[in-house]
Design brief:
Number of helices: 10
CATH topology: Rossmann fold
Number of strands: 9
CATH class: Alpha Beta
Strand order of the largest sheet: 3-4-5-2-1-6-7-9-8
Distance between the termini: 35 Å
Number of domains: 1
Helix content: 25-40%
Strand content: 15-25%
Structural class: alpha/beta
Shape: globular
Length: about 325
């Protein structure tokens, strides 16, 4: 039974000992799991970080490659100096006294990605997985007006849906940021309502700015932006801006110069759901089974969308 005093996310993780927090959509998504990882570490649990990586994992030094398509990135791992989010997080973790390993999954299809998750579950004795999405793409079921950029998120969701661990959850952080990619956020809320009816919505959880988790998250985002000056994270920067009270069209990087932003307090709120329940609601996730690379994932999503007689019409959040 859940209570107001213990958010359902943490109630579900209460008995977990070793938790894998994995960025579902690649890029800087893993940073969205940092506040959760800090809270779990402070509660005496082992928190491990992983990310679907946009770097070429199999080109990393052999000393950090765990298996084909999987690397254990550390603060001193050589690689692309312009863009390497996993190393940026590992460097920050090392500077702040945390274990500095961040596992990097190759951007691939469901079948090999699931095998890599199973390898980590075995090697790290994982008993809970939390997929984190910087944004809301992962909450789309398939018939919305737009799916945003679903390939990586859906590959991760499908992969973990086939991994046998006691607890599997999804946490979305950055509500509103995906408007840039065409997501209709009224439909995000509609999907969460449907998940609530089926008993799979685990509620929303705000990151307090003055908390240890909030303070360290802001420091980590600022650090990552300093070490990745050419491609700072728009998503995590937006979450950080929201956490510090900025609102509306508040820009923090030249990368967003031609866009209108809507920074808002809901960006710093985790929306959490049961992973199996989310996977069951997807209209096309089964089509991704057996895919061996990300291009197959993209192709099968496109085929599904082409076959839809119509999509759910856009609607505005009343104002």
């Amino acid at each position: 039974m859940f209570t107001l005093a213990e958010p359902p996310l943490f109630a579900r993780l209460r008995d977990a000992r070793s938790v894998l927090i994995a960025g579902a959509g690649g890029g800087f998504d893993v940073f969205a799991g940092l506040p959760l990882g800090i809270a779990l570490t402070d509660a005496g649990k082992r928190a491990h970080f992983a990310n679907l990586s946009f770097v070429t994992v199999d080109h990393l030094p052999s000393s950090v490659r765990v298996a084909p398509g999987l690397a254990a990135v550390r603060s001193d791992t050589p690689g692309n100096d312009d863009y390497f989010p996993e190393r940026a997080l590992a460097m920050w973790l090392s500077r702040n006294g945390f274990p500095d390993t961040v596992y990097a999954f190759a951007k691939t299809g469901v079948k090999p990605l699931r095998a890599l998750y199973r390898r980590l579950v075995r090697d790290l004795d994982i008993d809970a997985i939390v997929l984190v999405d910087g944004g809301t793409d992962i909450l789309m079921r398939g018939d919305e007006a737009s799916l945003g950029t679903p390939e990586e998120d859906m590959a991760s969701l499908a992969a973990v849906a086939g991994v046998d661990v006691p607890v599997r959850l999804v946490a979305s952080l950055g509500f509103g940021i995906d408007a840039y990619h065409g997501i209709c956020h009224a439909q995000v809320l509609e999907n969460l309502a449907a998940l609530s009816r089926s008993g799979h919505y685990l509620g929303a959880l705000s990151i307090p700015r003055e908390s240890r988790e909030g303070t360290l998250f802001l420091d980590a985002v600022a650090y990552a932006n300093r070490v990745t000056p050419r491609r700072p994270s728009i998503v995590q920067g937006s979450v950080g801006a929201a956490l510090t009270g900025r609102f509306g069209d508040a820009h923090f990087t030249e990368r967003t110069g031609n866009s209108e932003l809507f920074i808002n307090p809901l960006m710093s709120v985790y929306f959490t759901v049961d992973l199996a329940g989310l996977a069951e609601r997807s209209l096309y996730l089964d089509r991704l089974e057996g895919t061996r690379n990300i291009w197959e994932v993209s192709s099968r999503i496109a085929e599904f969308r082409d076959e839809l007689p119509s999509t759910r019409p856009r609607r505005a959040i009343p104002h």
